[in-house]
Amino acid sequence: MVQLRGPRRSVPLSRQVAEQIEELITSGRWAVGERVPSEHELVEQLGVSRNTVREALRALVYTGLLAARPGDGTYVQASSELDAVLARRSRRCGVEQVREVRAMLETEAARLAARRRSASDSERLRALLNRLHEAEAVGDPVEIALADGELHRAVVAGAANPLLTDLYDSLGSARAEALVSAVERPDQAGHQQRQHTRLVDAIAEGDETSAAAAAAAIVAGAEQGAAR
After folding, report:
1. Who contacts 108 (Cβ-Cβ below 8 Å, separation ≥6)?
2. pLDDT tier at 139 (50, 70, 90 boundaries)?
3. In this structure, what CATH number is given to the domain that contains residue 107?
4. For 154-165, what is the mean pLDDT?
5. Do 29 and 102 have their domain in common?
6. Do 76 and 97 share a domain, yes or no?
7. Pairing between β-strand 66-69 and β-strand 73-76 as defined by DSSP bridges
8. Using H for helix, E for strand and C for coil, what is the string for 140-200?
9. What pTM does this model have?
10. ∠ CA(220), CA(222), CA(228), 5° rounding?
11. Which residue range(s) make up the domain with 153?
12. Same domain for 68 and 174
């Protein structure tokens, strides 16, 4: 249930409602893809007018956090304004442009992860690498994709830069497209496996140059798979 906090006289009520709903989204309490309560339900829960609720929802639809589906309801479309903005911008770009940006983020993230690594970071990366190798041994493409994605996100998280992590997550579809193409190319499997091992080893050893080179090689391998 949503309950309006004590209203602030200097801020329009619709904006206060919008801010509170935005917090529910960014905190994860309302997940992407979830249908939000109806206008009638929000009016009852918040104790404000229907016009106030409608203005708040309209503002969040405009920013891209919510999506209105006529005859169905309103749904959470993005987990943050940054996600919404980048999603709109990415759709206006070619897949190759998105891949290039993602490659730059992954390479720099690997470098920073090597510089700022902790013992627990290294242990987690090795555990995720083992999971990826096990999935590759079985040959399950779905499990390979999940394990690969989790490993790469852990590398980015190891850079200890929340903005970099948000940017990376917001461009997730490009990474997924490249990954699926690479998984479908068995001739890429050995190369990618070696480079993932090299990446994790370099980060654990604090070797920034090797970590960045391994990340770049992984992206290049995925791009070659996508191009064939």
Report:
1. 159, 164, 212
2. confident
3. 1.20.120.530
4. 92
5. no
6. no
7. antiparallel
8. CHHHHHHHHHHHHHHHHHHCCCHHHHHHHHHCHHHHHHHHHHHHCCHHHHHHHHHHHHHHH
9. 0.64
10. 105
11. 93-227
12. no
